[in-house]
# Entry
Amino acid sequence: MDAHVPQRQGVVRLNLAAPLRRWPSGLLAIAWFVLLACMPWWIDLPLLLALAAAQLAQVPRLQHYRSILRCALRWGLAGLLVASYRVFGGHALGLTLTLLVALAGFSLLVLMESWQDRKPLRSEAQAAATPEWNEIARAPIGPSAVIIALLPPIWTALDGSTGDVPDDMSQVADGRWRVGTHALLDNIESRVSVAPEQDWMAFAITADRGVVLYDRAHGRQYRLPGWQLYGWNANEAWLTRGEDQPPLALSHVLGQDRVEE
# Structure
């Protein structure tokens, strides 16, 4: 029995100490209320507006004193109401106006505190929904990288000086060539570049005004004015409009430009 007595006494002392610790803050709130009630209302109002602005500013240094600011606004508003009522000297109209101001003031105070309580919750929810940077770095975002090695075009003269003219080509007239049995290429220069896999052929339009690409497998030609052959990647031509423009694949160019077949 004696062993349990000290524990009970300790509990009693703790319960009595908690109200004692709340006395200083309560005394300060009452003193603040009495001070504003005794001061003129035109001094109380700027003080309360300054406290409200400090609370709405969300300054990090003042976040530790948020509860103190709220208490000061509540008791200060009550003191402002008493100071404003004293101006009317106890008149019935003054009491009505004071009650209306009390209703509006405390309603705004509750709205402001509710907004401040909900804003951090929204920020925490957004932060929880946003993944960490290391998760974003490991996430498979976008397609896998592909290294494209372009082979520069090798132009072969069609005048027979090199002897490397393709077997399925024959000259019909000056600037006009036949490929295969049906395809005719007009207004091209006497040089050709063949893809590494031999399925595509490229011809320069006269005066370097563009390029003509011929698909041997399907017997189709694509005349692209303003484009120049930049290189080959496997069986696809890469084209450019100038040295200051990046090269584009033929599949991309055909989706952008009007093609003459």
About this structure: The chain has a mean pLDDT of 75. The chain is about 45% helix and 20% strand.
